[in-house]
Amino acid sequence: MRLDKFLKVSRIIKRRSVAKEIADKGRILINDRQAKSSSNVVVGDKLEIGFGNKTMIVKITQIIETTKKSDAAEMYEILETKVAENFE
């Protein structure tokens, strides 16, 4: 499955266009490698997603083409969430 579609279906990111934009800006890594929105993801991949000052690391546990909101969280496991300190 394409990275941007996985992020939307799993509801990690609400819109596919936003997922594409974030990936194309270089803020997503798949298994510690720079990812594009068109990159393929498979079960077992580790995603590192940068949201401004927050970074979320997840492991893909399932690939489902379409899912209900209540089942979306079963597609991944959150390994770590980091928040950058704001130094002024």
Write the layout of secondary structure elements.
Blueprint: H1 3-9, H2 16-24, E1 28-30, E2 33-34, E3 46-51, E4 54-60, H3 69-72, E5 76-83
Antiparallel strand pairs: 1-2, 1-3, 3-4, 4-5
Helix pairs in contact: 1-2
Characterise the protein shown here.
The model has no long low-confidence stretch (mean pLDDT 92). A hairpin with a 2-residue loop joins β3 (46-51) and β4 (54-60). The longest helix is centred in the N-terminal third of the chain and has 9 residues, at 16-24. Strands 2-1-3-4-5 form a five-stranded antiparallel beta sheet. α1 (3-9) packs across α2. It has a single domain, classed as RNA-binding S4 domain (Structural Genomics Hypothetical 15.5 Kd Protein In mrcA-pckA Intergenic Region, Chain A). Helices cover 23% and strands 30% of the residues. With 88 residues, it is of the alpha+beta class. This is RQC P-site tRNA stabilizing factor. Belongs to the RqcP family. It comes from Latilactobacillus sakei (Lactobacillus sakei).
Strand order of the largest sheet: 2-1-3-4-5
CATH superfamily: RNA-binding S4 domain
CATH class: Alpha Beta
Largest sheet: 5 strands, antiparallel
> Which CATH architecture would you pick?
Roll
N/C terminus separation = 41 Å
The chain-level mean pLDDT equals 92
CATH topology: Structural Genomics Hypothetical 15.5 Kd Protein In mrcA-pckA Intergenic Region, Chain A
**Unreliable parts:** none
Question: Helix and strand string, N-terminal first?
Answer: HHEEEEHE
Number of strands: 5
Shape summary? globular
What is the count of helical runs?
Answer: 3
The percent range for helix content is 10-25%
- The class by helix and strand makeup works out as alpha+beta
InterPro entries: RqcP (IPR025490), S4_RNA-bd (IPR002942), S4_RNA-bd_sf (IPR036986)
Family: Belongs to the RqcP family.
Protein name: RQC P-site tRNA stabilizing factor
Keywords: Protein biosynthesis, RNA-binding, rRNA-binding, Stress response, tRNA-binding
